[in-house]
Amino acid sequence: MAKATTIKIKLLSTADTGYFYVTKKNSRTMTEKMVQRKYDPIAKKHVEFKEAKIK
Q: Membrane spanning segments where (predicted)?
């Protein structure tokens, strides 16, 4: 069976609050780690979220 093109990833907050988003990305076109600026409701501000593995 072929390998899936889209994989689920966890976007973990860099503010060390433990808050995360779960999203999908295309592993063939986006080979580097994903970094997005999103809202962290625990820190109550926009911070960078970096890609981490889902365990």
A: none
